[in-house]
Amino acid sequence: MATVDTAINAIHLLVAGLWAGSVLFVAGGLLPAARDGDLGATVLGGLIGRLRWGSRVASVVLLLTGGHLAGTRYTAETLFGSTRGYLVLAMVGLWLAMAGLIEAGSGRLLDGVDERRVRKPARAATPFFVAATGAAVGLLVIGGVLL
């Protein structure tokens, strides 16, 4: 059983890192280029569509793997009554926030891309992706503490 837990932990960490990294890339690299008008609507729409799809897949994978890890490492008492349990619950909150912020930000971008616009939708989506970046960093920090 230890091999299964190790594999699930590895999958969880890999997907979390990729998800967080993709959001950091969008907020720090893609959106500034879009705000400057250096990206076309078709390219931006394609990239954000992939991010949105990948974010949804990552959310499900992290829900399943994180649920397994929490279920095997914590009881209800330790989850709701210990510092480590509170950190896990904080991660759940940040996970929900990050998924919601990515959905909202990518929705704003894709609405503008449908109208063949780039700069204004990129400016409108930036606060969502900056906040999602904060959630991503928080998730990585808490995950590091829990290791």
Short description:
The protein is mainly α and 147 residues long.
Instruction: Work out the count of structural domains.
Output: 1
Report Rg: 17 Å
Tell me how many strands there are: 0
Beginning-to-end CA distance, first to last residue: 19 Å
Shape: elongated
Helix fraction bin: over 70%
Q: Structural class, please?
A: mainly alpha
Profile the largest sheet.
Answer: none
Question: What is the mean pLDDT?
Answer: 93
Counted by DSSP, the helix tally is 5
Low-confidence region ranges: none
What string, H for helix and E for strand, traces the elements in order?
Answer: HHHHH
Strand content: under 5%
Walk me through the topology.
Elements: H1 2-35, H2 41-73, H3 76-81, H4 83-114, H5 119-146
Helix pairs in contact: 1-2, 1-5, 2-4, 4-5
Please explain how this structure is put together.
90% of the residues lie in helices and 0% in strands. The chain has one domain. It is an all-alpha fold. The mean pLDDT is 93. The chain contains 5 helices and no strands. The radius of gyration is 17 Å and the shape is elongated.
